[in-house]
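Bit of a strange request maybe. I'm writing a small parser for structure token strings and I need a real example to test against, not something I typed by hand. Could someone generate the tokens for this chain?
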Amino acid sequence: MLEHILLGLLREQPMTGYELKKTIDSTVGFFYRTSFGSLYPALRRLEEKEYVIVEEVKGDSKNKKMYTLQKDGEVAFVEWLKQPLKSSKNEHLLRIFFLDYLDEEKQNFLLKEYQNKLKSERHKLKEVEKIVIGELEGITNPQDFYYRLSVLQYGVRHFEMELDWLEDIIRRKDV
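Reply from user aminoacidic:
Good idea to test on real output. This should exercise your parser:
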């Protein structure tokens, strides 16, 4: 998955590993997380497959590696993109499924902790949404970013739905 994300981001412009990590964190990072420890091996694999080329460029204090998408990488990315959509696994739902094995105090603690995390994530996503909508107002073809904005809106709606559901199970409303 990470390799495809990198190919998609590099389709827009060449970037360093640091820039790729920053871009992931500020875009798809709301639903996909990665570390530098995963990022650089993935970039090496892409280089070995000749999907990207790497150039040393002069930086402020040291040389940086600039990654540029190659034609084979673009083909691989588009082929991946054409595959049927799949739903991912949700570990948190598996854990909630088995919460009956914990005492009520621990159940409530875990659910409230998760609820607070979701509220924080929803808030961050709404802030990003405001920024993006503002930026789209100033560009010529905002429709070119339709699917990106729709994923952002999905994220906000998903957090709201999950928060409503959590509130119900915390109050044991559905049982």
